[in-house]
Amino acid sequence: MNRTYWEKIAPDYNVEIFDVLANDNKGLIRKTINRFASQQKTVVDIGCAIGKWLPLLSPGFKRVYAIDISAKNLDIAKKIYPEYKNVVYSRVNMSDPKAKLTKCDFAICINAILTDSLRKRDFFFGNLKKCVKKNGYIILVIPSLESSMLTSIIRNKWNPDKDAPAFISKRKKHRQLKNLLEGNAEIDNVPTKHYLKEELELLLELEGFTAEKFAKIEYEWTTEFLRPPFWLKEPRPWDWMVIARKK
Ligand SMILES: C[S@@+](CC[C@H](N)C(=O)[O-])C[C@H]1O[C@@H](n2cnc3c(N)ncnc32)[C@H](O)[C@@H]1O
């Protein structure tokens, strides 16, 4: 998952990429952003893509820094939302240790740290602290490894879509094992980093944040299976949302 990948996806972003805002049925992320919103505060949307969160951020904050690695995504966002005059767009690679970043009072980073490259993730996490002022907050939404494992276990046992491949394929076993040990799970054949709650807590602590609250952003089972069995209700699949304070 490099810049080329995100640039290529940009024109079909709405079809290709899961919409967290639309699927957050309880509106937990929205409510949390509204709780931090203030006309005296600045906010940065890290990995803003085509700007789905801007209608919430722009009216709620003094200034919004919308940053993304993809120039095409930023161009689309600018075109969709010409009315938001307090948004400053910039192309930034968060995995570049020399990235130029503006410290804000508040930050959101929603399903953006997905790369399967540990090196790129380390730089990305390192840059998070350069985005947030002391005692400022960040909302991070991240794919859950626990949820992904639950889906795998259900697929392996009940095979709701009758299409489950062999759990460990002979041909791919080395890659599958490596992915499993690193917390990468494939989404549409793309190895995508998923996180354990405790892993996230540790990563944030090491970068100078205190994870104050974790919540599950829960989705419908139809996001995982075409035909989920009628009895499959709770628990639902989820992403982790963490609210962390910069120390
Ligand atoms: C799955 S999309 C999520 C977009 C948006 N936050 C949302 O919730 O709709 C991930 C976004 O992160 C961006 N991204 C990935 N790696 C990045 C990096 N190293 N620096 C900045 N943006 C990055 C991608 O270009 C993409 O737009």
Walk me through what this model shows.
It contains ten helices and nine strands. The strands form two sheets. It has a seven-stranded mixed β-sheet, with helices on both faces. The chain has a two-stranded antiparallel sheet with strand order 6-7. The longest helix is centred in the middle third of the chain and has 14 residues, at 145-158. The chain has one domain (3-144, 193-246): Vaccinia Virus protein VP39 (Rossmann fold, 3-Layer(aba) Sandwich). The protein is an alpha/beta fold. S-adenosylmethionine is lined by residues 6, 17, 20, 47-49, 52, 68-70, 73, 92-95, 110-112, 124.
Describe what is shown at a glance.
The chain contains ten helices and nine strands.
| Average pLDDT over all residues | 94
Report the C-alpha radius of gyration, rounded. 18 Å
* Tally of structural domains: 1
Encode the helix/strand succession as letters.
HHHHEHEHEEHEHHEEHEE
How many runs of DSSP E, i.e. beta strands? 9
What is the level 1 CATH name? Alpha Beta
Give the helix/strand class. alpha/beta
Low-confidence stretches: none
CATH fold-level assignment:
Rossmann fold
Counting H and I runs of at least 4 residues, what is the number of helices?
A: 10
- Based on Cα principal axes, name the global outline: globular
The percentage helix is 25-40%
Can you list the ligands bound to this structure? S-adenosylmethionine
Task: Give the percentage of residues in beta strands.
Answer: 25-35%
The CATH architecture can be named as 3-Layer(aba) Sandwich
Distance between the termini: 31 Å
